[in-house]
Design goal:
Strand content: 5-15%
Number of strands: 24
Radius of gyration: 44 Å
Shape: elongated
Helix content: 40-55%
Structural class: alpha+beta
Length: 1092
Amino acid sequence: MIENSLFDRSIGYWNHGGTKRLDFMDGHVDVAVGEETGWKWKETSMETVPDAKHIALLSLKFPATALKTSSAVIPYTTVAELPSDDSSKRVYAVPYEELSSFVSSIRTMPTAEEDETVDGEKRQWVMQIGEILGTKGPKTGVIARVQETIYNLWDIVQNADSLDVAIMFLGYLSMHLTFLSLFVSMRRLGSNFWLGTTVLISSSFAFLFASLVTHKLGVPINMVLLSEGLPFLVVTIGFEKPIILTRAVLDESLNLRKKASSNASIQSAVAGAVQEVGFQIVRDYVIEIAILALGAASGVQGGLRQFCFLAGWILAFDCIMLFTFYTAILSVKLEINRIKRHVALRKALEEDGVSRRVAENVARANEWPRPPVSETVSSDSTSGVEEATTVFGKKVKDSHVVRFKVLMVTGFVLVNLFNLFTLPFRNTSSSTVIATGGGIAAPEMNVWEIAGEPLDTLLQSKEPMFVTVLQPIEYELRYLKAYPSAAPTGYSTSYPRLPTSAYEGSDLFTEGIGSKVVEGILKSIEDPVLSKWIVVTLIISLVLNGYLFNAARWTVKEPHADTEPIETEKETVKVIERIVTVACTCGGRGRKQVATTEPGEPTNDESPTGRTVAECEAMIKNKKGHELNNAELVELSVRGKIPGYMLEKILDTNKERAVSIRRAMISRNKLTSERTGGLERSLLPFEHYDYDRVHGACCENVIGYMPLPVGLAGPLNVDGVDYFLPMATTEGVLVASTSRGCKAINSGGGAVTIVTGDGMTRGPVVRFPNVVRAGTAKNWIDSEDGQKKMKASFNSTSRFARLQSVKCAIAGTNLYIRFRATTGDAMGMNMISKGTEKALSDMQTDFGYDDMEIIAVSGNYCTDKKPAAINWIEGRGKSVVAEAVIPSHVVEGVLKSTVDALVYLNSAKNHIGSAMAGSVGGFNAHAANIVTALFLATGQDPAQNVESSNCITLMNKTSDGHLLLSVSMPSIEVGTLGGGTILEPQGAMLDLLGVRGSHPTTPGDNARKLARIIAAAVMAGELSLCSALAAGHLVQSHMAHNRSAPVTRTTTPAPLEPTSKTYESAQNGAGISTPVSSTIVSTLEKQRGVAK
């Protein structure tokens, strides 16, 4: 239908110039005359007038302008020429049996006049006709078609007006710039290719649908009109609406993620975005369609009305496709991005040394949208529950969709195999829709308008005749070498005549819909090209859906922490907490076993009898330890039958229970009971904590968790963004002091930071038999070849770790090799250690140093968790410099000091004083205070505050009298994934800073941003403390904040659980009252204004 509507450009149908046809016989009309017709021409078949002479009436049409200067020389022929009322057209009456030879003789004709030559070749008249049915021209391939298109375009350019050519060139240039702008905009929204391509595909479908509707409504549109109008339509309308919708969907998904809604989903984000911007988009479409409707209703000629009509339908279908097809693809794209983030985070954690189970739990907990709990199924569950999707109100399992698509692909493969095996038995004259080149009927021809006068001439002979009137054949004046003739050779009249009703009067929307649609589908399936594309499309769809379904199952492979143990078929014996055979009287602070049976069934704790030790040991060996109650597990642990570190493995589904039993086990340890007897009932909390994230990642032999107070300093403006700084500390005044520094820095416009280096280090030590071999190895590693091979070996171990440099130092036969590499958003010690081991192993086996002995993967040349000048000089982790300008009035008003006083104090204390003490990297007031507080709050390794606190603080007076403050910290070792950052409280603080997890587009940016924030916070702390020292307020502030509460207890001889009475006494100072303490308490309470 599209080919019929766009590529058929005959005069009678489109009312535009050009008579190129796909087939020589397209649009012919048969007329006859004789006694049977009353000697009047009548459109009929040959059987109507028997014994009639069969003649073909052939018209040759030449361009009038070119014919005046270069007339055609018709080859000598016996064919009679008939008179014509058009001087540019010659009409010949050709006996039908001689039509083939006559057409062959006139496919090219010379000119009568002397004409210009190109390489000795004169221009000739060339027949403009497509391929003849049943024959193939010498050049019908893709290359020939491309060449013909280029030559056609060049002819148009040569014959067109210069202004028109310039306008069309600018139109097409603007159209392609619009396409480029679409992809740039989508790239900014996070899609490099697919969303932009989807917009173009959606628009292409809208164009095809609009072309079909326009054709069915009888509005003439041709390729010339489209080629002239579409660029300006694309430029005028553009692709702003898909971009607006995409941005709205992303904003809505971000808002839903911030709200942490339990019902949030990608579909709800799309629906919310449509509610927000849908009216605006539809309104714009309506306005644009109304304007185009006015253009279509206008009386302007030249194709404007037809193009406006088509453009209006294009926008209508584009609106429909935007809210159906594009939104569906957008949802799939967002789902794929969610899966990619999930997999990337899990793999990054695994590369950083976190176990797969914990990494999967963390990735699942951090993904958005989070799967509903009801849809999450334990991997060890035997219920066989499967996620289901609702389709038209009915639940359909995901496997059913996959099975359906597999059957679809299999069906198409079978259809193709059937076609292949039945080829020898088919009628060779049959053809399919696509394979038939001439299967498109030309529009009807007004035979009396085209051949009226020649037919009147033939009628004068009073001889019965059957005349086939052919459509006029156009000629163009061309150079054959530059543009070979389109007229093929080997024309034959022995081809089947086209049915005149092939497409005539067909209406896929009104009559015959069932038979025609089914016939079209069946022919499409039989077609060798279309069927293969359908199969490929279905296979891609199958793979994509399988990928999505498998990825969805990735998120539920691991069981939840609160998954209950599975009930076994064996009838368990109920056990009470007092077990005579085991001689245990406590089940872990008197707690009963977590229920493992269905509601209403008896639990083990209600059993009047107990298991023997042998029975309990047998259950442990049979991996049924989770069925034992707490008392039995504690007794087995005390007896040494269960190692303490194995409790989490035995009680895999309830790690909190394992912690409880370990506390009871340690309390009953005979060797340490005097000191640890109160651990079970101590105030160290252990309940309501996610131990799944701890086990295998953060800590072993867990007995609880240590709450630390977390305060917020700030906000602090860092590089134009305001941040509240989470600080976990027990030192009073620290948060308040840092907040004061933040206030002063903000008054001067905020902090400006820059990252000067990024690379974690690992420095192994290796040994060689002699110094010659050690020196040879050092020289090879320092060489270009050595650096290249070591980088290739190192980088093969991780997707994120990338080796930057390798530096060597030699001490006798020992060689110290310092690897420096980027590690993405992870702190990276495990990642770089793995790469270091691989590089050293390849150095031994592949690079010719098999005599090298690896002493240790860390030879203290890193240097990690120890003060070292190499970290201070060369840096480790992130090297950051932060700067701020504090106005003088802020120094005096907020900091209660002066610029000169601060400059002098910084020099005397931080520089000269540190130098006198022989400090390395300690040219600051208290950088470690802020670094450690931020490290504890954000899940960093607290021990790495040693090198991370390397800092030099500089203060200078500007020419304007203001304070110029800066800190340089060359070795901040931080990460935003892995380690303690996987714990929810610490992760929440990273969320507070907006740096949790891996950066979605540029790995490493989140960790670098955290390092910038830490450097700016250190600068705030330095400023406030130095100001307090300069003003003499340090002791006063600490006495007011740190010592305001009276001491309630001295040392603790035994960890006894306090009662409410003893607690009240402690609060009132009872039990430790001495004259000194009473005086201190009384004085401090009076200072606070507390009335007794």
